Amino acid sequence: MPNGTVKNVTATSDPDLFFGLRGGFNNFGIVTRFTLKTFPQQLVWGGLITYASNELARVNQATANFTANNTDPRAQIITNYICTLGITEVAELVFYDGSSPPKGILDEFLAIPYLTKNVSTRTFFSLVQSFAPNATETRTIFNTVSVLDYPVSLLESIVNESVFWSKSLEPSSAWITSYAVEPFLPSLFDHSSTPSAYPPLRDRGLLPLNIYFGWTLNSSDGIMQEAARDSAAHIRQLAVAGGQDVADAASYGNYAIFDTPVGRIYGDNVPRLQAIKAAADPTNVMGLAGGFKF
Questions:
Q1: Considering just the CA atoms, what is the radius of gyration of the chain in Å?
Q2: Model pTM greater than 0.90?
């Protein structure tokens, strides 16, 4: 705790603090240990496929179809549109929590001509090792938009966004613009009934879009950060215009840009979180750390 004491926190021993720690980041103290219920991990199937720009239409359609039709919680994809020098290609992460996916779930992606493909039945550790890490040698920024669906029209707009910002930001030393589509099941938030700081509501599943810009010159920091804000706002506007009720949808805090208002992430939970913060850390010791603050 911020006052130097050690405290074991559970949903029954301290429901308020337990609520805040579940998604409330580093506002209430330092978590030194936590207990998880685990399950045996068997072999999985998956890996990374890359596609050239001439296959974007087929990738968009496959992604939209997966989003609309998949009901298997063991299947997942991330469609990552990566643009350099105005040319967008795709890094497709495909995954199935089993030795092989049932026929029909991911076949559409496997049928698209590819540049590279590293997909197999493997250990989970091998799967993680097969994915390229985020670049750490350059300057970067994240931002995010939460949506309810990824129809082809929105995916086409995301591709256009990647090209627009790649070309616009190139004079400011941008070397990559990346938009990662994560089409989880609508039941995303149904796996727990224990109240938590995030998400503020569990009545619908929100699908995060991760916006990632990379550049080299520190003099371009402000330009890149503002571009990430503008891009997120534009994509949210397009989703709303397409009929999605996401104008006030909660943003995913792990992707949200650093100055996102806490109300955008935590919604109506903010007053309760502020009260928990005041009780747990009355002298604001945790204010010395970074991150979103209540």
A1: 20
A2: yes
